[in-house]
Amino acid sequence: MLTLIGTDISEAVRLLEAGEVVAIPTETVYGLAGNALNEEAILKIFEAKQRPRFNPLIIHISSADQLNDFAKEVPDACLLLAEKFSPGPISFLLEKKEIIPDLVTAGSSRVAIRIPAHPVAQELLKRTGFPLAAPSANPFGYVSPVSAAHVYQGLNGMIPYILDGGESKVGLESTIVGFKNGEVIVHRLGGVTVEEIEAALKKPVRLDLNHERPDTPGQLKSHYAPNLPLWVGDVDSLLQVHSGKKIAVISFQKKYVYPEPAFQFNLSPDGDLREAARNLFRILREVDHLDADIILAERFPESGLGRAINDRLKRASINV
Ligand code: TXA
Ligand code: MG
């Protein structure tokens, strides 16, 4: 199959209406989208990504007003969070209505729903009129794409069209939030921080990021993995341990001088976690293509977006 890259929204609409899949830009990462109400389209998504069928997909809608069309019930806490953070990098796990195929949710009674903020995604959703199921547009297990070129690198030949909407501004996937017995549970750390959610709710949330028996099956440890071995921790001592190897370092702000690594990248020289998050996946991919033996990454501050960055680095690493 020939894979085209372009900015033609009408072409994307035409393909989606015909039950095809299209890679689309969102503010978090690029998604591989198909009509969430069309099982053929959903199957094509799983196939192109080589994604196991037990791993459910997030559906995307254009506005919070549509939550009731696809969810049986929308808890007050969900409405509050939707009001505050949607459109944006947050997904809500809600009891699904019949209309959502079981294939989308991998048999679960709950569906994850997100309202993306990217103007191109918004326009697509408005013009198609149906919800779009969209996992990140990368082959299963690899780093999520934050540009059309990244999608092309991974899915060339597997999908007909990549809609180019520039670089993703957030650069980390959405935060996934569930609701149980009046409690709000964060299942995946992402673009909206735990602190922001707690401030909005005026109460603490529970974190359930379990890797072994995840409530969110996609939280597998092997996710976001580059091909080169990646170690996370105290880079000064890791540099000693791995001396003699060709090392690429990913750090927040710091520059390492002794022993000097072959390659190094600051995710944000100014120490801005938002900027670091935006750069993370692009740099992980760049580093993966270098002529290095291993990647060493710093641990980021455990607050705000630093927690989501640490989570992704941990899943990409071989030592944690
Ligand atoms: O920012 C994002 O969320 C991006 C963009 C494209 O919207 N999408 C994304 O999708 O990251 P994906 O498929 O790569 O990750 C979705 C995660 C997976 O870990 C999946 O297991 C979980 O959400 N998930 C989706 N539906 C679920 C459900 N019904 N119950 C539990 N977990 C669910
Ligand atoms: Mg993914």
Number of helices: 11
Average pLDDT level: 95
CATH level-four homologous superfamily name of the largest domain? DHBP synthase
Bound molecules: threonylcarbamoyladenylate, magnesium ion
CATH topology of the largest domain: DHBP synthase
| Strand order in the largest sheet | 1-8-2-3-7-4-6-5-9-10-11
Low-confidence stretches: none
How many strands, what sense, and barrel or not for the largest sheet? 11 strands, mixed
The helix content is 25-40%
* Helix-strand sequence: EHEEHEHHEHEHEHEEEHEEHEEHEH
Using brief descriptors, characterize the structure shown:
320 residues, alpha/beta, DHBP synthase, Rossmann fold, 2 domains, eleven-stranded mixed beta sheet, four-stranded parallel beta sheet, 11 helices, 19% strand, globular, binds threonylcarbamoyladenylate, binds magnesium ion
What's the arrangement of secondary structure elements?
Layout: E1 4-6, H1 9-17, E2 22-24, E3 31-35, H2 39-49, E4 58-60, H3 67-70, H4 76-85, E5 90-95, H5 102-105, E6 110-114, H6 119-128, E7 132-133, H7 148-155, E8 161-163, E9 175-180, E10 183-188, H8 194-201, E11 206-207, E12 230-232, H9 235-241, E13 247-251, E14 263-266, H10 273-288, E15 294-297, H11 305-316
Parallel strand pairs: 1-8, 2-8, 4-6, 5-9, 10-11, 12-15, 13-14, 13-15
Antiparallel strand pairs: 2-3, 3-7, 4-7, 5-6, 9-10
The structure holds threonylcarbamoyladenylate and magnesium ion.
The site of threonylcarbamoyladenylate has 27 residues, from strand 5 and strand 6.
Structure description:
This protein has helices at 9-17, 39-49, 67-70, 76-85, 102-105, 119-128, 148-155, 194-201, 235-241, 273-288, 305-316; strands at 4-6, 22-24, 31-35, 58-60, 90-95, 110-114, 132-133, 161-163, 175-180, 183-188, 206-207, 230-232, 247-251, 263-266, 294-297. It has 320 residues and is α/β, with parallel strands linked by helices. The chain folds into two domains: 4-207, Alpha-Beta Complex (DHBP synthase), CATH 3.90.870; 230-316, Threonylcarbamoyl-AMP synthase, C-terminal domain (Rossmann fold), CATH 3.40.50. It has an eleven-stranded mixed beta sheet with strand order 1-8-2-3-7-4-6-5-9-10-11, with helices on both faces. The protein has a four-stranded parallel beta sheet with strand order 12-15-13-14, with helices on both faces. The longest helix has 16 residues, at 273-288. It is globular. The protein starts with a strand and ends with a helix. The relative contact order is 0.15. The protein binds threonylcarbamoyladenylate (TXA) and magnesium ion.
